[in-house]
TrEMBL record:
Name of this protein: Metallopeptidase
InterPro entries recorded: MetalloPept_cat_dom_sf
Signal peptide: 1-30
GO molecular function terms attached to this record: metallopeptidase activity
SUPFAM superfamilies: Metalloproteases ('zincins'), catalytic domain (SSF55486)
Sorted UniProt keywords: Signal
Length: 257
């Protein structure tokens, strides 16, 4: 996300799609600012399928004060575990070990943030009045999104998408030159300007938003299923062989050059 979800503006798109929180720092606030940020609750920290997950106590019901599972736990926690189990199956061990270093924050309903996102910048969080503890975490602001049939049909790899942003930021670097070069090539060829979406409409691919979304969207197709053509790996290989081969190397599926 830039500060606003670009997908909300596309035909057929619905509020709540995943996007990257790539906020621009305000001129008066840098990442090393020591000002505090609001804390609406202290999360319960648990390990879920190898990931450290910060959980709003309200989602745990009676289990919030202990370690035992409770029948009052929110169903979204099981669905989050389901997403993470699929990622465990899909990724090679080396890439998975890196991805499991990325922490996740889930809450019942954030007052202003709606879509799932990744927060690379502490400065942006502070500048916009958000909890700085979200820095470098994948954020699920509204747990019910994980239980939405609409969301599942549209974006079954939403957690993978957000973790891909974190992988790009923390392990490759947002300035990784090969990703930028592949993105520029994709723009020049215009191969993503008019593609089929999961709705049956032809639209401009969301991956053209920037090279970060290009990487995350491509990752969805490479490992699972995206909501824009190319939907799956075989289609990606035919439609954008440069990105297909690059993703294979960057995720450790293929040998490096």
């Amino acid at each position: 996300m830039m500060n606003q979800d670009p997908r909300m503006l596309l035909p057929g798109r619905l509020v709540g799609l995943s996007f990257l929180c790539l906020a621009v720092l305000t001129p008066t606030l840098a990442d090393d600012d020591t000002a505090g940020s609001p804390a609406r609750f202290d999360p319960v920290v648990r390990e879920v399928e190898g990931w450290t997950v910060h959980i709003a106590p309200v989602l745990l019901g009676e289990a919030a004060s202990g370690d035992d599972a409770s029948g009052n736990e929110h169903r979204s926690l099981k669905m989050l575990a389901n997403h993470l189990q699929r990622i465990q199956i899909l990724l090679r061990p080396a890439a998975l070990a890196k991805l499991q270093q990325v922490e996740i924050w889930i809450e019942k309903e954030h007052p202003s943030l709606a879509a799932m996102q990744y927060h690379p910048s502490r400065g942006w969080l502070l500048g916009n009045g958000h909890d700085e503890r979200l820095t470098k975490k994948v954020h699920i602001p509204r747990a019910d999104q994980l239980l939405s049939k609409e969301q599942m049909l549209k974006h079954p790899a939403v957690i993978l998408h957000e973790l891909a942003h974190a992988y790009h930021d923390q392990f490759l670097g947002f300035d990784q030159p090969e990703i930028i070069a592949a993105f520029e090539e994709a723009k020049l060829t215009k191969r993503y300007e008019n593609v089929l979406s999961y709705t049956g409409q032809n639209v401009r691919h969301y991956g053209l938003s920037n090279h970060k979304e290009y990487f995350a969207e491509g990752t969805e197709a490479y490992f699972y299923r995206n909501d824009f053509f190319p939907f799956v790996r075989a289609e990606l290989e035919q439609h954008d062989p440069t990105l297909h081969d690059l993703l294979g190397r960057l995720w450790g599926e293929r040998s490096s050059k």
